[in-house]
Amino acid sequence: MKKYAYNEITLMQYIFLINGTQVGTGVLALPRVLAEKAGTDGWISLLIGWFFSVMASIFIIKTVERYPNDTLYEILIRLFGKIIGKAVVIVYMLYFAFYGGTILVNGCLYIKAWFLPRTPDFIILLLFSIPTFLVARNGIRILGRYSELSFYMVMWIPLFFLIPLRDGNWLHFLPLLKEGWKPVIYAVPTTAFSFLGFEVAFFLYPFLQKKQHAVLGITIANTLTMLFYLFVTIVCFAYFSPDGILEFNQPVLNLLKLIEFRFLERFDMILLAHYLIVVSTAWMPCIYFATFCSSQLLGKQDHSPHVIILLLIIIGLVFWFQPTWNESEKWQTMIVKGGLQLAYVVPPCLWAYSWIYEKYRRRVNL
């Protein structure tokens, strides 16, 4: 009998879980961030960032496929022993908790700014926490179903970006590589926050039904994320001038304000409300994986109490500190620094170490 038969996920759920974790609030400011670093050549940085994310993803899969039925906690204990293994798991637990909390705060700030300006932050987070708990407490399978359903519910959103694209000016992209490759390379790390999320494959692999398709699935997930970011970025670059896009903090939202119909004036409000579903597929897995780590560290089967505690901690911190946009951006910068290590540096190092470990173990057993 399979170890996680009750919580197995399909290949589609695996793809949409990874894609949902990657696509969060970062896309709303991404075109401006890329324009600051590389001008209208920033879209090239996205392609380079996608390449590195796919390479790091493959290293993750090649590492965990050596131990197909073990979670990351069990793999780290096997490779490094209890003390070091648990220490690394604690790092991942704190990372996902902070990552999920930051996305929650971002979603809260958007809702507060656009819909509920007089509602206290902690009340909005409390409302977010109810569906988060109901989904996250039920494990990977329910998270996978939610991510898949959410993808089908919002896949129509990119179509509306074609409306302002009709008035775009493609001359904004010329000449290519205006200032050479240096600004493009310099902008690549800024795409890290947008592509972060594929590291959840460390936790998803034991639950995947058809593990032979894991590499294909994570590559498709990264590619879907890249295509969405690339499309939105190109539309923003084509519509706004190279200098004009720098005037907007979230140019994607300003672009959506331009979409009007005779029967509906503020279409951007409806679109943003639906986009909240997309954002929820990013914070819910992060909350779950943080509590999954904590429950395994404490040897508990039921992680539900851990979900409640983590959500209460986030709500309490928001009530106490009342974060602003600037503080949220600082937190995102911290996540990028940590994510670059845990998502891009750790996988190849862990793969190399596990390869050496298995070689040595086989030689000792001969």
Please tell me about this protein's structure:
Belongs to the amino acid-polyamine-organocation (APC) superfamily. Spore germination protein (SGP) (TC 2.A.3.9) family. Its main location: membrane. By secondary structure, the chain is mainly α. The chain is built from 15 helices and no strands. The longest helix has 43 residues. The model has no long low-confidence stretch (mean pLDDT 86).
Helices and strands, with pairings:
Layout: H1 11-22, H2 30-38, H3 42-64, H4 72-114, H5 121-136, H6 140-154, H7 162-165, H8 181-187, H9 192-195, H10 201-204, H11 214-239, H12 251-256, H13 267-297, H14 304-321, H15 325-365
Main traits of this protein?
366 residues, Amino acid/polyamine transporter I, 15 helices, Endospore germination permease
Give the gist of this structure:
Belongs to the amino acid-polyamine-organocation (APC) superfamily. Spore germination protein (SGP) (TC 2.A.3.9) family. The protein has 366 residues and is mostly helical.
